[in-house]
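Q&A log
Question type: sequence-to-structure
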Amino acid sequence: MDKQKVLIVDDERDMVEVLLGRIERLGYESIVAYDGKEALEKIETENPDLILLDIAMPEPDGIGVLCWVRKQIKSMDTPVIVLSANSETETMSRAQELGSIDYLIKPVKLTEVEAIIKKWLPQA
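Response status: OK
Response body:
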């Protein structure tokens, strides 16, 4: 059986490295995108099982990526967890309206990220 895939979308390379290590220790396959355009390409080619998505990044931003994901029939059920330093209520509400399953404010607790991933991607 193939490993479940987690796409990390963040333009902060340090954050990506921390998340990569944690996700791989949990037994999932990691895919990385450093901007919105690359994220859209990876979503189409890799079909991730879960997406960790930053909001503030090069075009399209995380909200743009989330809009696109939710418009794609094949991606409607893909859990998207927003990890962002943006704590504005409007942005958080918009992400929720677009179907993010959670919104964690950076700096995030890795144990919290782990728990959410395990909830949505239980391992066989």
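Response note: The beta strands are 5-9, 29-33, 50-53, 80-84, 102-105.
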